[in-house]
Every structure is written in structure tokens, then in C-alpha cells.
What does this fold into?
Amino acid sequence: MSVTISIKVKRELVELAEKMVKYGLAKSRSNAFNLMIEKGLEEIKKEVGFWDRVYEKVKELEKKKVRLEHGKLNELLVEDRAR
It folds into this structure.
């Protein structure tokens, strides 16, 4: 059973939660905070850091006009998240 509470957190943690949602690591910010508590902040930072690097590399490839086959990157991301 879930219980709603109101807490103040550092901006850094909110930004981390938002990235987790953006990268599909969490369904919502609430889910992201629960994962941070369950897995530990350092583990979550490592995971989000990995995806930050992946997305930066994709942006670099796009700037270089490297054509990514539609859907293939998404398949890789989904497979990795399933692990």
C-alpha cells in the first residue's frame, strides 16, 4: 500500500528523477524516488550516468549526419532496460 507524503529534496535529486523518467528507467518521479530509496542513490547515479553518455553519443552521431536506422536504437535501449 502506498502512502503519500510531502518532503523537500535537493534540486539535484529532482533532476535525477526527471532523467530517470526521460530515459524510461522509472514510470514517474514518484517511482524514481522509490527506486532511489530501494537501489541506493549511488547505483541510480551510475545507471543514469550510463544513459547520459549513450544519449550524448547519439547526439554526436546525429551532428555528424550519421543515419541511425529507425527503431534499432530504441530496440537496444529496451533490451538493455529489460536486463
